[in-house]
Structures are given as structure tokens and as C-alpha cells.
Write a structure and sequence with these properties.
There is one protein chain. By secondary structure, the chain is mostly helical. The chain folds into two domains: 41 residues; 49 residues, no CATH class. Helix 5 crosses helix 7. It comes from Glycine soja. It holds the Pfam family PheRS_DBD3. Keywords: Ligase. This is Phenylalanine--tRNA ligase alpha subunit, cytoplasmic isoform A. GO terms for molecular function: ligase activity.
Length: 117
């Protein structure tokens, strides 16, 4: 089916600009279209160029941060704005990794500071 689609299209048109869009329009698996084009290219029947696309996706850690915030943001929101919080109470309020990373980054960016009481 993919081969017939590619050859049929090229019989009436000079080029397929984007195999991904072409496959989507016809409801054919993109890999099948690519394999047909590579085969035709290998035999010298068509010229073909790769189109490189990069896609950024969130890691599992990134997904967590997108839903609950980065460690420094979690730490920031765990600190009451007016009265502050003791180090011990803050450690109890957030996870250990959030505390460790959050303290370092929040202090580095000067979002928080250790006060004396």
C-alpha cells in the first residue's frame, strides 16, 4: 500500500516535500513510507533528503518538576513568608532530596537566606 501511494503520488507530482506529512495525510505508517522512499532512492529512481527534527521531551524528573515545581520552588513555598521556619522543621516538611537540592539552589539564587533567631 505504501509503495503504491508513493509511486501514484509521484506519477502526478514532482516531489513529496515531507514524508511525515504525506504519511499522516494518507493514514499510512511513516516508517513504511520511509522504507519505500529509501528503496526507490537506493535503486536511483528518486532523490531523497533526510529531514532532521529534534523533539524535546520531559524526563520523569522533569515531569515531576512540571507538576510540583523544582526543588528550589518546592523549598521556597515550604517556607512561611513572614515568620520563616527552622532548618529542622523545613527538613521535616520537604523530602530529603528536595531539601538538599532546594537549599543549595535557592541560596545560590538568593531566594532564601539563613536568619538568626
Amino acid at each position: 500500500m505504501a509503495e503504491e501511494a508513493v509511486l501514484g503520488y509521484l506519477e502526478k507530482n514532482s516531489e513529496i516535500r515531507d514524508s511525515g506529512e504525506f504519511a499522516a495525510e494518507l493514514g499510512i505508517d511513516h516508517n513504511e513510507i520511509v522504507n519505500v522512499i529509501k528503496s526507490l532512492h537506493g535503486f536511483g529512481y528518486v532523490d531523497a533528503q533526510d529531514i532532521k527534527r529534534e523533539t524535546w521531551v520531559l524526563t520523569d524528573e522533569g515531569k515531576t518538576y512540571s507538576s510540583v515545581g523544582s526543588p528550589e520552588v518546592q523549598l521556597f513555598f515550604a517556607i512561611p513568608p513572614e515568620e520563616g521556619i527552622s532548618k529542622q522543621d523545613l527538613q521535616k516538611k520537604v523530602e530529603p532530596s528536595v531539601f538538599k537540592i532546594g537549599c543549595a539552589q535557592a541560596a545560590k539564587t538568593k531566594w532564601v537566606e539563613m536568619g538568626n533567631s
